[in-house]
Amino acid sequence: MNRYEIGIVETRNVLKALLDTHGYDFRDYALTSLKRQLEGVITKHGLRDPEGLIQRLTNNHKFLEQFLKDITPETTEMFRDPSLWRALREDIIPEIAKSSTRLKIWVAAFDSGEELYSICILLKEMDLLDKFQIFASTISDEVTKKIKLGLLDAKQLEVNEANYARSNGTRAYKDYYSSVNTSGTFEIDNTLTENVTFLKQNTCFNNPPAGIKLVLFRNQLIYFNPTLQDKTLQVIYESLMSGGYLTIGAKETLENTNSSNKFTVVNDREKIYKKKNT
Q: What domains does the chain contain, in order, with CATH numbers?
C-alpha cells in the first residue's frame, strides 16, 4: 500500500479531534515529525484518509490506545550514548545516593522502555535499585503493557550489547535477557521494572511526581515546538528538588528556552543540568 501524504489542514483536523474527544493536545508538537507519524498510522491500519482516522479515533477507544502507541517515538537502543551512562554511574548517581531524603528518579520521556531498562540495570549493578523509587511516564496503556513485557526486537541486540559494554557495565548484557525466540524478539528481565510506578500522562504531563532527584528526558524536545518545550520544562523544573539533575538529548539544549536560567550546566557534553537552589 502506498503511503498516504497528509496535508497541514488535515493534520490539524486530526489534532482537533484528538483534543475535543479525548483531551490529548498535540498541537504544539513539531509539525513535520508529527505528520510523518500520522501518515505511518494511516498506512499501517489500512485507512483511506485522515477522515477515516478521525472516525476510528472518535468511536473506538481501543484504537485510540493503539494509535498513541504507534506515535510514541521508538528509542531503539538501550544505553544510548554510553558516555552519558558512564557519567551517571560514576558521578551523578553516587552524588544523589548521598542524600538523606527519599531517592526518586523520573523517566519522563514518552518512549518504548529502553531508557527505563537501562537505568534499572545501572541501579541494580550499583546495589541501589531497591533504594530508589522510579517513575516512568507513558501515554498509552498499550505502551505500558509492552514495557512490562520487556520484549525487544532481536535486531537491537548487537547494538545494545555494545552500548552496555561501553557504558562500563559490570556484568554481561546477556545476564539481563532471555534467548532470542522464534518471533525474532528477546525478553528483558521483567523483575527489573516490577517496582516501577507507571504514570499515564497526557501531552502536557499532568499529575507529575514530586521530590525528584533525577529526570531522564532525552531526545524529546526535538519533537516539540518552543511553546511545548517551555511548558514541559517548567513541569520538570517544579518536580525536581533543589539541586536535582536533568538530562536531555545529546543534540538538545536548554538555551533559548525559559528554563535556561533555572539550571546550571554540570556536563555540557552529556547534557546534564542541575536545578539551581531555590
A: 8-70 (no CATH), 82-275 (3.40.50.150)
